[in-house]
Amino acid sequence: MDKLVITAALNGAEVTRIQSPHVPISPQEIAAAAVAAAAAGASIVHVHARRDDGTPTQDKRVYQEIIERIRAVSDVIVQVSTGGAVGMTAEERGDVIALAPEMATLTTGTVNFGAGVFMNEPAVIERFADMMRLHGVRPEIEVFDVGMIAAAKRLVDGGKLSLPLHFDLVLGVPGAIPGEIRHLMHMVSELPAGCTWTAAGVGRAQLPIATAAILLGGHVRVGLEDNIYYSRGRLAVSNAELVARIARLAQELGRDIADAGEARRIVGIFGRP
Ligand code: KMH
Ligand code: ZN
Q1: Nearest protein CA to atom 8 of ligand 1, as residue
Q2: How far apart are CA 110 and CA 117, in angstroms?
Q3: Whose CA is nearest to atom 2 of ligand 1?
Q4: Cα R_g (the chain), whole angstroms
Q5: Is residue 131 in a domain?
Q6: Does the residue 272 lie in any domain?
């Protein structure tokens, strides 16, 4: 089994400071959260840009500042979001790919997302895939339901994506596949041979889905984007706290933790930075 790659989804687009005062917003806060998460065992940080008032933005300049601040102090893999926030246009969401980050998310379908719709038309998905190939960006195929795995396979058949892919299996978004281990097992069974995968459980599904992923040979994503609680009724005080628990669990279960260099090899990032 490969060493465990832990992704810290630091802030997301939708979580507010009212929900959790610990969500990093500014590039400085995001960089500090990235460093702390890396020290706790994360080898990838998934980041969303925010404006000073906390609202989500896909402004390239904000992403540039986030990447530069993290790069200056850490070799953790910086994965930017092309999902942005519900309601953003595809044009604004895709802009960040031109920065040629090491890694970016690529969602391969449309899904209800809480009260909104996370819209990903086929032509937009193909355009983002083309842009990622052009700029040498490793996509993380982010799927919220099993049909999105089938869609990724069609993109492979059509020459838009190449195997092996790295997937992020997200379970528990209201409107998408529920956060149950049997659904995780089914999603894993549908992946093309040779692909790697991370599992992200949303809300109370975070800990059981992460534990199952450790045991099944997958990788784990935790963080305040997906879940603001450490335990019932007790907010997580930081992303690092959530990452540290996964690192402890993995060690107890006999799974070593990948550092950033090892994570690059595992998820298929070669020759950078
Ligand atoms: N904020 C969600 C609507 C991604 O980062 O690529 C989409 C999302 C996925 O967070
Ligand atoms: Zn995200």
Answers
A1: 83
A2: 7
A3: 85
A4: 17
A5: yes
A6: no
pLDDT at 11 over 80: yes
For range 108-136, the mean pLDDT: 97
CATH number of the domain where residue 126 is located:
3.20.20.70
Q: How close is the Cα of 81 to the center of ligand 1, in Å?
A: 6
Mean pLDDT on 223-235: 98
Ligand nearest to the CA of 81: 1
**CB-based neighbours (< 5 A) of ligand 2, an ion:** 81
Domain count, the chain: 1
Token pair listed for 102: 């090491």
Q: Which of 9, 44, 32, 30 is nearest to 262 (CA)?
A: 44
Does residue 112 line the site of ligand 1, with CB under 6 A? no
Cα(84) to centroid of ligand 1, in Å? 5
Distance 257 CA to ligand 1 centre (A): 26
One DSSP character per residue, 194-234 reads: T-EEEEEE-GGGHHHHHHHHHHHT-EEEESTTT--EEETTE
Tell whether 48 is covered by a domain.
yes
Q: In this structure, is residue 165 part of a structural domain?
A: yes
Average pLDDT over residues 41-55: 98
Whether residue 272 is predicted with pLDDT greater than 90 in this model: the reply is: no
The range of the structural domain enclosing residue 62 comes to 6-267
Quickly state the pLDDT bin for 96 (edges 50, 70, 90). Answer: very high
162 near 171, Cβ under 8 Å? no
Give the ligand whose atoms come closest to the C-alpha of residue 93: 1
**pLDDT band, residue 271 (cuts 50/70/90):** confident
